[in-house]
Amino acid sequence: MILVLDISNPVVPVLCDEFVSPVARIIEQKGISVKKIHISDLIQIKHKVTGIIICGTALADSWYKDKRIEPLVSRYNVPILGICAGMQMLLSESGGVVIQSLEIGMIPVTLSCDGKEDILTKGKDEFSGYALHQYATTIPETWTVLAHSKNTAQIVRYSDKFWYGVLFHPEVRNEWIIERFVDITIK
Amino acid sequence: MKFGVLLSGGKDSLYATWKIMQTGGEIACFITINSQNAESYMFHTPNISLTRLQAKASGITLLEEKTQGVEEEELDDLNNAITRAAKEFHLDGIVTGAIQSVYQASRIERICHQEGLWCISPLWLCDQESYIRSLISDGFEVIIAGVYADPFDASWLGTWIDNSFIDRISKISGKYQISLAGEGGEYESFVCYAPFFKQRIIIKDADKIFEHGAGYYHVKEAGLIS
Question: Relative to the CA of B7, which of A24, A141, A164, B86 has its CA 20 to 30 Å away?
Fold first, then answer.
C-alpha cells in the first residue's frame, strides 16, 4: 500500500481534493492500493506501507512549514516521493535552506547527466512541468539533481536511497513520474 | 475563511461553490467577468448576464466586470475585479471551477498571488464521470447552453445534464475525444438550480442558435420561482 500524505492546512479541507486525490487516483489506476492520510493523523496507520508520496499544497499555504516528516521517514524504510512542498520538507530536514523561488505555470524542465541515467527519469530528456510554488530549498550535498528549470532544481534524489523530490506538480500532465515511482515501490 | 467565486454561470463554478460551502468555507461574493468576445480564452460567455439570477437565487452578492475579451488584456480586467472584490468583501481567497486548464489556472494563480489571496480549485483533476454523477445526485439542475465540437448538434442545446445525458455523451466521448465534463470547451452549461439556491431559475423563452458546427442556447426570458 502506498501512503499518500496530505500536508495542507486543515482549515481548508478541500485542498485534499485538489492536491492529494489526483495523485491517489493515478496510483489506483495502476491497480495499487492507496491510503490518503493527513499529516496530523499519522498515528492511525496500521497497514503495510510500500511507498510514501508527500503531496504539495496551495501556493498560499505555509501551514506545513513548521511540521516534520522525519518521524514518518524513519519509521518506514521505503521509497519516498516529495512533491513541491513535500520536496521542500524532505530537503529542509536534510539540511537544505528554504529560499524564495516563485514559479507558476508550465515551465521547461531539462534532465541532468544523472537524470538521464536514473530509473525515475531516464528517456525523458526535455519536457514541460506545471509549477506552483513560491519556495524551494538549497540542495544538500547528500542529494543529486536529476532535472532543473531555468531557476532551480526540479527533480532530486537522495544519494543512496529511493527518495525523490519533484518541485513541479507531476500529477498535472506528467503522470508518468508518479507511475514510474509506483513501479519502483513494487521492485 | 471568506472566498469570492469566479462565476461563469456554468456547472463547474457553482459545484466548486458547493464544495467550499460543504467544507465550512464562507462564500462572500460571486465575481462575473462579462466578456464581449464570444471566443474568449478565459471566460465563458453564453447567457453570462443570467449569473445575476443565480446570485439572487442563492442570496450571494454579485460583482460584475466588463471586458473586451482580448487575449491576455482581459486578465487586467480580471485582476481589477478580484482586487475590488478582495477589498470590498475582505476576502481570504478566490475559488475557481478549473478542472484541467493550466492556461486558466496559472493565470488566476498569478493574480491571486499578487493580491496575497488563496486560489482554490476544488474540482482540479477530478474524475469527470464521478463529478458529473455527483452533480446530478446532489440535486443540481443544469442545461447544455452551448456546443462547440463534433458530433454535438442543435438537439443537445437546452437538454438537461441527467443520467440519460451521461449515457448519451459516454457513447461519443471515446470516438470524438470529448471530455465528459466539457473541460476541453466541447460544451458549456448553465445551472438553473443548485442545493444552496433559495429559488429556482425557470427559462420562459429561448432560441437554439446553431451554425457552422457550433451553437448556443440563447435565453431570451428567464425568472425565479420559489
Answer: A24
